[in-house]
Amino acid sequence: MTRRPRLHVSSSCNNNKAPAAAANDDDWKFDRRNLLVGLGGMYGYGALNPLLASADPINGPDISSCGPADLPDNVDKLTNCCPPMPARIVDFNQLRRPQQSAAPMRVRRAAHLVAKDEAYMAKFTRAVELMKALPDNDPRSFLNQANIHCAYCCGAYDQAGFPDLELQVHSSWLFYPFHRCYLYFFERILGKLIDDPTFAVPFWNWDHPDGMQMPSIYIADQNSPLYDRFRNPKHMPPNIVDFNYGTGSDDSSVLDAQQLMSQNLTIMYRQLVSLGPTARMFLGSPYRAGDGPGPGAGSLESVPHASIHFWTGDPSQPDGEDMGSFYSAGRDIIFHAHHGNIDRMWEIWKTLGGRRRNFSDPDWLDSSLLFYDENAQMVRIKVRDCLDTRNLGYVYQDVEIPWLNSRPTPRASNNRVMRKGKKFDVLVNEEDEAMATPKHTEFCGSFVSVPHGSHHHMQEQKIIKTEMRLTITELLEDLNAEYDDQILVTLVPKTGCEGVKIGGLKIVFDS
Questions:
Q1: Buried b vs exposed e over 17-54: b needs ≥16 C-beta within 10 Å?
Q2: Structural domains present in the chain
Q3: Which of 161, 485, 450, 166 has the alpha carbon at shortest distance from 327?
Q4: Which residues are catalytic?
Q5: pLDDT tens, position by position, 13-55
């Protein structure tokens, strides 16, 4: 008979006062007494609105209803994130794709490895330069491509068939398919502009120590179209990216480069292997037609995805622009390199064995999204159309994956129980929050949310309900606690958690 351990919850309540404005890296602090924890059961959209078996796939956005995005107060409210209206919409499967015939496969290469390839860099730079030169009424222009992220992520769109119900592609099972399709069409447009169907965008190989810096190709020349002035000046090379960024203390200031790289590798193992054993845990929670936005993110979407967004953006800007805010993230060309690696992680995850397979749910497979292609025609693409990168005509460069051997280690041997954006950490069987770091087994995971707006018809409603799921099977095994009668869960608020309410926690046995 399987034991069902009792759950003991504690909330760290240090007295860190919130600063008036987040103008630098040290301003990620707040009064932890404002994080409210209840014990009445799981609280969130997924718990309050059980998904119905008869629900339907999301049928993309209603383009005709695209309205003002919910932008930060400092942004010009005349900013329009909506795309040009299409003359017609074509289905992806009706298009003839060169890569499905004799064209060679496009190979996405690691950004730090292409810097010395002068021919490639000339093509990449020229393609982005041409895209940025396109007029604003061209849906393929860099501005309109950047605004795709703003429209889909900041409340500009209704769900088709559900007026006044926001379509949101983050914090759900649409996160990976949306960004894959977004990057696919972006890449196709660049290739069309330089008349090279084999052109592929690079990926930021931040999961390998050699790639854990801001890639030089995006920062070496301030006159290059690959340069963006709104990046954190303190995080230029040789500084190492911090996957735990946004904790109230900068790990890069207390860990040397080797220690930080080692911690990053451990985080990668945790997010893909330990916390991502199933489709729901890795890809995110189901999101069907008629559902409210943000039912729950997968393991990688919070960390390191959101952490790297924050780490890259400029903290001197009001909302961490460009990368640190959803509405502006697509304005930085490094966004596409970042999401190239996120997309690559999806491919790697499927090779790790166990139950790591894509959803077979038709409501996921038949969900659809709209994008303009390289010929400036709007295309409807379904999730089922984008599941195989080879069918889309591209693969990733084969590089070493060192984090596969970076399983976390317990802080103490046989440790037992009696012990703006938003971020909090979750510890298991650890009474001393200051001692557990991301390298330790007791550090279960983090919730990180990139700032984004709510629906344009409901701007007075700012409350977002979501859920966070963490897999603890491997963690309890490593702590020799899988047969304990009770476990201690400690929530450690870190960033921007004023007024956050956690309605409860529970252990669910997933068969």
A1: ebeeebeebebbbbebeebebeeeebbbbbeeeebeee
A2: 6-502 (1.10.1280.10)
A3: 450
A4: 149, 170, 179, 305, 309, 326, 339
A5: 443 332 233 344 444 333 333 334 333 333 333 333 444 445 6
